[in-house]
Amino acid sequence: MDILKVVKYQIHAPTILDFLKYFLAEVLGIHVQNRAETRRKQEFALKHNQAKKEKAAGAESTQSRLHVRSNRFDHVELNEDKLDDDAKVENYLVEKMAIYLAKMCMHDIELSARRPSLLAVGSIYVALKISEQLKKKDLINSAVVCRLLKKSKMKEDDILDVSQKVLYLAQNFDKELPGLDNLKNTHFKLITQLL
Asked: Which end of the chain is more exposed for a tag (fewer CB within 10 A), N or C?
């Protein structure tokens, strides 16, 4: 410890992205790793979605869109390799969506003044809700919410409050954050390809 004081080493405060990585792993079993691994996940997800689209174009799907399966986030699977391909793509969608929302929060004056841990939880909650609506699947339920509350040690009202603000920001991105086209182009295009 004395050496750290002599060299005046400063430990940085955790950012929203640091908390996001922790909560994604602990609550949903989604591990955000290095760039090479993220690139591998991205390539896999895009190839998988392209193959599904080609298959769907070749044959009519007999599966009803109203079919609801049990929520796979009920029990966190710590080993992502055991997940089926669709679940891996869903995980990557939630990961990218949460990162996109978290980065948006860092650019908003009101939200950037909030605790980064709260913003991370709010970004995950909104990412799950958006992904749920876009994929027409149940991704969030009481078990997921309970784990989110337990791991974050936050009040549900605080999470819902910040989540509403994050959702508003996502819905009004161009109006609220004009000129941040790079953020939108980098993330939004990929997210739409994952659907």
From this structure: N
